[in-house]
Write a structure and sequence with these properties.
Blueprint: E1 2-11, E2 14-24, E3 29-33, H1 40-48, E4 53-62, E5 65-66, H2 72-77, E6 80-82, E7 90-94, H3 95-109, H4 117-130, E8 141-142, H5 148-162, E9 166-170, H6 178-191, E10 197-202, H7 207-210, E11 215-220, E12 223-228, H8 231-239
Parallel strand pairs: 3-10, 3-11, 6-9, 9-10
Antiparallel strand pairs: 1-2, 1-4, 4-5, 7-8, 11-12
Helix pairs in contact: 5-6
The structure holds adenosine-5'-diphosphate and magnesium ion (2 copies).
One magnesium ion (MG) is lined by residues 36-37, 41, 172-173.
Length: 247
């Protein structure tokens, strides 16, 4: 599904990613853990195609396609979902229109017919009921006045509607409480299946109590320095990142 080889990237002339190798097969959920400043968010931004990150080496393929050669919209159309792609509030942009536009862009690229407002509402309402989301969240501006938990629910709704092949979640700095963690975890766990992969990026082990990963990778100083099973997350929680030998 996702294959990263020798990936190097710079921000403002400073090398942050120093040769990342990582493969996430279809159907697997991998976690990336690491101390602050290790490059976790940089990796997610590079995979998203955010501006300002210069790729200086390596390759990334997604479903066999050269991800780094694709525009951010093309990455989304190919089935890559970034959980924090739209963290901002958009006053004046109705949440229903926003979600429908995102969904229709992907449907168009797949050659599927677009949904009109009524068709979309039907699909969205069914999903929202499953997520215990009040219906008025569709009428409000995107994330405007949403609580932290409501923003999480909205992201999970967006993910469920877009049905991506791969979701990348960077939770590191979002200061989620337990309720919000559970919303995200339930959303990801509901997507689990042979055609879904996820890269869960987190500073804390807590989230991984709810989303049990197939593999855990430790990122330090811009490199993956250790890979293990779910038990590695518990080990790190107990002994800290100091116990991991930086490569
Ligand atoms: P993490 O998410 O693991 O905490 P980041 O990817 O946010 O780490 O940051 C990795 C390193 O890159 C840090 O040393 C940070 O200061 C630096 N960095 C990140 N973004 C920028 C930027 N826009 N300009 C300069 N340095 C940056
Ligand atoms: Mg950080
Ligand atoms: Mg970060």
């Amino acid at each position: 599904m996702l294959k990263i080889e020798g990936l190097r990237a710079e921000v403002e002339g400073k090398e942050i990613l120093k040769g990342i190798d990582l493969e996430v097969p279809a159907g697997e959920i991998h976690a990336i853990m690491g101390p602050n400043g290790s490059g976790k968010s940089t990796l997610s931004y590079v995979l998203a195609g955010r501006e300002g990150y210069e790729i200086t080496g390596g390759a990334v393929s997604f479903h066999g396609q050269d991800l780094l050669a694709m525009e951010p919209e093309e990455r989304a159309a190919a089935g890559l979902f970034l959980a924090f792609q739209y963290p901002v509030e958009l006053p004046g942009v109705g949440n229903a229109n926003f979600l429908r536009t995102a969904l229709n862009a992907i449907r168009r690229s797949k050659g599927e017919p677009e949904l009109d407002a009524m068709q979309f509402l039907k699909v969205a309402r069914a999903r929202m009921k499953a997520l215990s989301m009040p219906e008025d969240m569709l009428k409000r501006g995107v994330n405007v006045g949403f609580s932290g938990g409501e923003k999480k629910r909205n992201e999970v709704l967006q993910m469920a509607l877009l049905n991506p092949g791969m979701a990348i979640l960077d939770e590191t700095d979002s200061g989620l409480d337990i309720d919000a963690l559970k919303i995200v975890a339930d959303g990801v766990n509901a997507m689990r299946g042979p055609a879904f992969s996820s890269l869960v990026i987190t500073h804390y082990q807590r989230l991984l109590d709810y989303i049990v990963p197939d593999k855990v990778h430790v990122l330090m100083g811009g490199r993956i320095v250790q890979t293990g099973g779910p038990e590695l997350a518990h080990q790190l929680e107990a002994s800290g990142y100091g116990s991991v030998q930086a490569a």
